[in-house]
Design a protein that fits this description.
Structural class: alpha+beta
Low-confidence stretches: 2-14
CATH class of the largest domain: Mainly Alpha
CATH topology of the largest domain: Methane Monooxygenase Hydroxylase, Chain G, domain 1
Shape: rod-shaped
Number of helices: 5
Strand content: 5-15%
Oligomer: single chain
Order of helices and strands: HHHEHEEEEEEEHE
Largest sheet: 4 strands, mixed
Distance between the termini: 184 Å
Number of strands: 9
Helix content: 55-70%
Length: 283
């Protein structure tokens, strides 16, 4: 009987050990399953928050780009500022589209999430409201830029017209200046020549005792001068006679230290008033 009792106790002990092992295994499985659910929720929450943060960062970058466009829009129009505006507006459009895509991902996540759906729905609504507000500002900015382009085009046309007028006036003034300069040159240009009687005859300057009788005399034989500048003509001769008519008292014909005549014009305007050609016969 004693041996039989010991055998029964042993069987009971073994059965108890098997039951405890089974219970422990079940608890372990339940714990692992719970940890997996917690890990999945944490991963899902991280993904949602990462997406939300990315949208918010997109809004921040868009605001900065808006500021750069506004600042450039306030500056005088140049090729560089226009380039800044175009570059930032293109960046804004890309960032806006990226935010639309991210919000669409969050809306899709809302359909399957095990996370607090109400909180996620409110977050998505807030992000959509921000997106709409920002989109409206961008449209207003685009309209302002378009209006400015029209103004710039009108101003450009006016500037072109003004430039054409300025060019025309400049050309007209240049022509007038050239005309005045030519007239001034004509008014103050004279020609002189001195030579022996034979030389003057040879050049048809002196014909039958008359000076400059006909128009076929050799004009190239004369020296051209500006009467405002040339006041003295050296004749390099000890005998000199003026053959053309010039008012008395407007010049002086006298010898220098070498005994050679020098013509000094004391009143140029009056001296040249009768004739712009001066002919002097020397020996």
């Amino acid at each position: 009987m004693k041996k039989l009792f010991i055998l029964v106790l042993a069987i009971v002990a073994v059965s108890a050990c098997d039951s405890n092992k089974t219970a422990n295994d079940e608890a372990t499985r339940e714990r692992d399953s719970l940890m997996q659910i917690i890990d999945q929720k944490d991963e899902e929450l991280d993904e949602i928050m990462s997406c939300v943060n990315e949208v918010q960062e997109g809004f921040r970058r868009i605001n900065e780009a808006e500021g750069r466009v506004t600042i450039a829009n306030g500056n005088p129009e140049t090729a560089s500022t226009r380039g800044v505006i175009q570059e930032n507006m293109q960046y804004i459009q890309q960032a806006m589209q990226q935010n639309r895509d991210l919000i669409a991902q969050l809306q899709q996540r809302l359909k399957t999430t095990t996370f607090n759906a109400k909180a996620l729905e409110r977050t998505i609504q807030n992000l959509q409201a921000q997106l709409e507000s920002q989109n409206q500002r961008i449209q207003e900015l685009e309209a302002a830029l378009a209006e400015k382009d029209i103004v710039i085009a009108e101003q450009g046309e006016q500037i072109d017209n003004l430039n054409e007028n300025v060019d025309a006036l400049t050309q007209e003034n240049r022509q007038k200046s050239e005309t005045v300069a030519a007239q001034d040159k004509d008014l103050n240009t004279a020609w002189f020549v001195f030579g022996t009687k034979a030389e003057l005859k040879e050049q048809k300057i002196l014909q039958s005792g008359d000076v400059l009788k006909s128009g076929d005399f050799n004009k190239d034989y004369f020296t051209e001068i500006d009467i405002r500048v040339v006041k003295e003509i050296k004749l390099y001769s000890k005998s000199a006679t003026l053959l053309t008519s010039h008012p008395a008292g407007t010049y002086r014909l006298a010898k220098d230290g070498k005994g050679e005549y020098v013509l000094t014009i004391t009143d140029a305007q009056k001296f040249w008033s009768v004739s712009k050609y001066l002919v002097i016969r020397v020996k």
